[in-house]
Amino acid sequence: MEPIAVNIDGLIYAKQAHGGISRNFTNLINAFAERSDADVNLYLEPGVAAPEGMSAVRVRRLPGDVQVRPSRVFNGLSASFSDRRRRFFWKSLSSGIFHSSFYSSPEGLRIPQVLTMHDSIFEDYPLLFSSDRHRQHLAEKQRALRACDALVFPSEFAKERTRENYNIGERPAVVIPHAVGPLFYHVPSKSHVDAMQQEIAGMRPFLLHVGSRYLHKNVPKLLQAFSGWEQRTQIALVLAGGGLLQPEEQQLISSLGIEDDVFVWPRMSDHELHCAYYAATAFVFPSLSEGFGFPVLEALACGCPTACSNAASLPEVGGNAPVYFDPVETDSIRSALSEVVSLVGDKARWGAAREDVNRRKWKDVAGEYLNFYRRVVASDSASSATPGVKR
After folding, report:
1. Which residues, at least 6 apart from 102, have a Cβ–Cβ distance to it below 8 Å?
2. What is the pLDDT of residue 31?
3. Which residues contact 111 (CB under 8 A, 6 or more apart)?
4. Staple 277 to which of 139, 284, 302, 348, CB 3.0 to 4.6 Å?
5. What does the alpha-carbon distance between residue 28 and residue 322 come to, in Å, rounded to a whole number?
6. Is 202 left (phi over 0), alpha (psi -120 to 50) or beta?
7. Environment class of residue 92 by beta-carbon count within 10 Å: exposed (0-12), middle (13-18) or buried (19+)?
8. In the sheet that 206-210 helps form, which strands lie side by side, from edge to edge?
């Protein structure tokens, strides 16, 4: 089969170098690179580093901005030249597809554009995301949606919410769930897990939360539930990967009297995170809205007992394994914490979840994407060949 040209912009690496979306695209691009039926190109802005763990991938640099001196006089002319240079660059792509990693829609493209709609968090919670930066993000997202020829969703929930928020017409659309990265296929050594346990909480058992602490992640509600949990003094809570505590978070923890029971790891490497899932007594994820909910998949891939919100895509991702709770009810969260801890010894339940999650590989995900890309290219060719039909 003749390889299809897959052109992916690296905008996500400029905006969110270490987040779940960037990790997913790295895994996907690496899976493309291992196949003979894909010719993958990654386009990065000048100065943006290629992601760690990217192998055998052709990285191309986008044209830099043009600077006409003196800049205070010729700012407008410089911007115009830069825009024309970019349009000419994108216009030079003549085959395959363009896949936006994060709501981009380059001017000048003549090949079909595929857009991943990762979630609808900004649309669903406008009061939580009302800054100028958030409004700009929504505008870019809507512009990319108008420009694209086909849509990919990580979950049925993400697809449903997009259809409810926007008119996507009859464009090709498909749900392609993620997989965990290759690191999670393996069990870390006991010495590494024990070292992580010691480093995180001094060998104290702990519940693990992973990811950012944006308001929709609902961590304040988790802290409130945890403060009244009867096992709090025996089992700590670790907040990993969301950066340093903000003043209001520190104030909440202090007001709840749980300073000695909450540990914060601002950032974890993939290796540390892998070991942390194995070291944790259980994983807890109280998010109000997720387009996919990657930490839940990772925790289950490690056989970590999991309690998570029953909202959005999380039941779709977690399946029958997690203990679910109502994320807006502290009593529901608290009850779930007790239940998941009581199920820690259920090796059959968590072992089956681990096997189920690890059965899906990124090579399978890449194959589904390539099948969809070919469908999009075929549809575009048919439209171009039909008089009066314009892509």
Report:
1. 11, 12, 15, 16, 21, 118
2. 95
3. 7, 93, 94, 95, 96, 97, 98, 380
4. 302
5. 26
6. left
7. exposed
8. 262-265, 236-240, 206-210, 282-285, 306-309, 323-325
Q: What averages of pLDDT result for each successive group of 10 residues across the chain (391 residues)?
A: 92 85 92 94 91 82 78 71 89 95 94 96 88 92 96 98 94 97 92 92 93 95 98 96 95 98 93 96 97 96 98 97 98 98 97 96 97 94 49 38
With the CA atoms of 157, 161, 164 and 167 taken in that order, what torsion angle do they form, in degrees rounded to the nearest 10?
-100
CA distance 355 to 357: 6
The C-alpha angle with vertex 154 and arms to 164 and 11, in degrees rounded to 5, equals 100
Instruction: Single out the residue of 305, 301, 310 nearest to residue 342, CA to CA.
Output: 305
Structure tokens at 321: 């394994």
Q: Among 212, 278, 280, 282, which Cα is nearest to 245's?
A: 212
Give all strands (DSSP E) within 290-346, no chain letters.
306-309, 323-325
Contact 283, 208 (CB under 8 A): yes
What pLDDT, on the 0 to 100 scale, is given for residue 381? 73
Task: Find the helix or strand (DSSP H, E) in which 214 lies.
Answer: none
Residue 16 in tokens: 């969110």
Q: What is the pTM of this model?
A: 0.92
What radius of gyration do the chain's Cα atoms show? 23
